[in-house]
Amino acid sequence: MSEIVGKEKVLKLLQNMLSYSSADQTEISFMGGNTSLTRFANNYIHQNVTENNTTVKVRSIFGQKIGTASSNNLAPEALKELVARAEELAHLQVDDPEFKSLPGPNPSEITTPEPDETTYSASAELRANGVAVICRKSAEKGLTASGAFRTGGSEIGVVNSLGLTAYHRGANSDLITVIMGESGSGYADRLSPTIAAINAEEIADEAIGKALRSQNPRALEPGEYEVILEEYAVGEMLQYISYLGMGALALQEGRSFMQLDRLLMSPLITIYDDGSDPQGLVNPFDAEGVARQRVNLIEQGICKAVVYDSYTANREAGKQNTGHSIGVQGDMGPIPLNLFMEPGDSSKEEMVKQTKRGLWVTRFHYVNPLIPNKAVLTGMTRDGTFLIEDGEIVGPVKNFRFTQSGVEALNAVQSLTQTRRLQGAWGGGVGYLVPALKIARFNFNSATEF
Amino acid sequence: MRDLANLALDTARQRGANYADIRFVTDRGQHVAVKNGKVEALSSNESQGFGVRVIYNGAWGFSSSSVVSRAEVERVTAEAVAIARSSATVKRRPVELGTPLSIQDKYVTSVKTDVFSVPLEEQIALLLQANEEMRRIEGIKLAAGFISTLKINKVFASTEGSYIEQELSECGAGIDAYAVSEGGFQRRSYPNSVGGFWETGGYELVPRLDLVGNAGRIAEQAVQLLSAPLCPTRKTNLILDSSQVALQVHESCGHPVELDRVYGMEASFAGTSFLTTEKLGNFRYGSEIVNINADATSPRGLGTFGYDDEGVPANRTPIIQEGRFVNYITDRETAATLGQESNGTARADGWNRIPLIRMTNINLEPGKSGSLEDLIAATEDGIYMETNKSWSIDDKRLNFQFGVEIAWEIKDGKRGQIYRNAAYSGMTPQFWGNCDLIGGREGWVIWGVPNCGKGEPMQSMHVGHGASPARFHNINIFGAEG
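Predict the joint structure of the above. Result:
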C-alpha cells in the first residue's frame, strides 16, 4: 500500500505548482489514493487487484481563454511542464464569453472527520476473509457465488489563485454478491465508510435466500404492473434521473424534465443532495474545491432546484454556485452525487400486503435513457423478480424489460419504507441513501427467457 | 525499461511466483471540444505507470503504481505476490495458461499523419466551422463537436521470455446537432453518436470524415424530427444502417462470445451469456448469410493491435460461420480451460488494470446485396433506422432493445416519411435468424466503439466492428413516448 500523502504535503505541492503559473487565474487539483478489489466467481477468488495513482490537473485562464492539462507524473520538472502545457493550450483558445471567473475562497475552512484507516488500507487478507464466508455458505447450499469486495480511499485537494484551498481524505468499502442456482439468482450489497460495518454473513444470507426463492421462475405476460422496488432498484433509477435532469446545464439547455415549482412527483417524494451528511459518503467539496451545499431538489413532489457549478451559476442572473462541479464541462455539467430520498412510514412486508397483483423487483440491469428529456428509461430486471398476488409473494417470475419514465414512476409512488439503505452510484465512491418504494404503475414491455 | 522489467520478474520468481508479467503503459491524449460557437474543452492528458500480474500457488495477484522506479517496482511486485497468496486461500483449481509464449517484437500502428502533428488551432477552426454550419439551421439550440487524438506506448515482459513493445495511435471525431421545442428534444449525430467515429491510425481520419460538409444535413434532420410523427408500433422489415448493425453485433454477438462471461467470471457485474459451451460448433446463431469474425488485424479497426496484453499475437478468428456459432473469444486462462490456445483478445484499460477478454474488431462480413439504397429498393414495406440513441440488453445477452436517432418509412422500395423516437426489440438468435439481406463491401465500414465497459474496477475499452447495412424481417418496432 502506498503512503498517504497528507494534507500538508498535498497543499504544498499544489501551491508550489501555483507559483509556476503566469496565467490570470489558475486552478490546480490533486486526486490520489488507492483502490483494492477482490473479485470472486464460481465460489473462488479469480481476480485480485490493487492500484495506487495520483493525478494532478491544471486549469489555466487568460482572460476568457481556458486550457487544461493533467498528468500522473509528479516529478518536479514534469509538474512545471504541466503548468506550461495548460497555459500553452489556453493561448490557443478562443474567448468563452460565458466564463466569468474561477470560484473564490470558501467562507470557512472545510473540515471533515478522518477516514477509517482500516478501510483505507485494508489488506487482501481482510477482503479474502469476507469473500470466503460468502463462497462457503453458497457452496453449502449448492449455489454459485460471484461478486466483488472493494476497499480503499481517496485524497483530494484543490487550490486556485484566488485563494481557495480545499483538502479531504475519505474511505469506503462495498461488498456485492450475485448468488446463482440452476434457474434463478439472488443479490445483495452493502456500502459503508467503514469496512467493519460490512457484514459478509448478512449479505450472503440475503442473497442466498433470494437465490433459493428464485428457482424455477414462471413466464408472465409483460404489461403494466404495480411494483415494489427494493433499494437496489431505486438507487439505480435515481442515478439516471439525477444526471438527466437535476443539473443546471441540462435545465439551461432545455433537456431536463425539471420544471421549477411544478408538482411532477408524488407528494411523498422529497429528494435532496448533501455532501456533508455522514449518513451518506461524505464528499465535502466539488471538483473546483467549492463546499457542497445542501440542495433541496424535490420537496413533496415539487421541483425546487437544480445544482450548479461556477460556470452554470455565472450564466444565470441571481444563481449561486452550489458546489456540484464534476470537473469537466461537457454534456453533463454539474450533477448531484450525494442524494438522499426522505423515508416513509411503511415496510416491505406492509407493501406486499397492500399489493393486489404486482411485482417485487430486486434490482435493474443495463439501464439506459430512451427519451432523455422525459427521463424515459429502459432496462431489465435481474436477480430476484417475484409475483405478488393478494398480499403475498407467490413465486419467482422470468425477468422483464421495462420502458418507463422515472419521473412518472416517482409520481405514482404510493408508499416508502421507513428504513433506508446506502446504495453506491457511479461505480463507487458516492452513495445515495434511499428507501424501497411501492409504485402504482410501472410499464414492462417485454420479457426474457430466464 | 528492460532493466525494470527484469527486476520485477526476478522479484516475482524470488518470492515464489510460478508466473509473472509486467506492463509499462504511457497514454497521451489531446481533446478539443466545441459547443455553440465556443471551445468548451481544450485539454491534454497523460498517464503513466506499470502493473505486475503474478500467479502464486495457482492463484492470481495484481498490483500497480504510477511511480516508475526501482524501489516501487520491487514493492509493487512483492505486493502482487502477497495478494495472490490471499487469493489462494479461496481457490478452486490452479490457474493454467496453456503453452508458454516467448516473443520479442515491436509493433507500431500504421499512420499517414501523426496524431499530434496537426496544430490545435487548425482543429479548433475546423470544429467551429462545422458548428457554425449546424447553427445556421433555424431550430438548432445546441451544436457540438470534438476531435480526440491518443497515443499509447506499451512494454510487455513475462517470465516466459516475452518482451514486446507497441505504439498504438488512435483518432476520433464527431459532431452533434440538437433541436429543442416545447416538450421536444431531438439529436442528430455524424458520423456516429455516443463518442463519435474512432479508428486506429493518424489524423488523416479527420479530413476524410468531412464534418463541415455533413453539418447542415444533420442539423436539418434534427429540426425535422421535432415535428415528425412517432414511429408506429408493428412487426415489419427492418433495415439498419451499418453503424447500428455494428452496435447490434457488439451487444448481441461480441459480448456473448466472451468466454469469461460464459464461465461466470463476469456474473456479478456485466452478466453471463446464453452461448454456453455445449452450443459451441452446433448452435444456429443466425441465418446462413451471417458470417462474423474476430479480427485484430483489420486495417484501421479500433480493436487492431500487434499483440494483446498477454503477449499473444493478433489474429483473425471465425466466430459465426454461415449462421453457426463456431468460436469464442478467449484469453490464455479461459482457452486452456476449454482445451484451446488463446486467440489473443486479453486487453487492459491502462497500466492499472488487469487484462480481460475484450472484443477486438468483431466484424460482420459483407454480404451480396449491394448498397443501402439497393436494400431499400428491394423492400416493399418496412422501416429504415439510422444512428443509435439508446441500447440495453439482458444479462445473458438475449432480450435487447435499441432506440435510434432517425427512421424512415419504406414503401414500394422508396424512403417515405421520417419517424421520431423509433426503437426496435428482439431476442438475439431469432433476430439474427431473421437477417435476410446484408449489404456488400461498398457500404462496409469499421466503426469504433470507444467506451465498451466491463470488469470491476470498470474498464473502458476501445473496440471495432465492421458492418454493412442489413435487413431483418418480422421485427417488433415501436415509437418511444415520454
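Chain A is about 25% helix and 40% strand.
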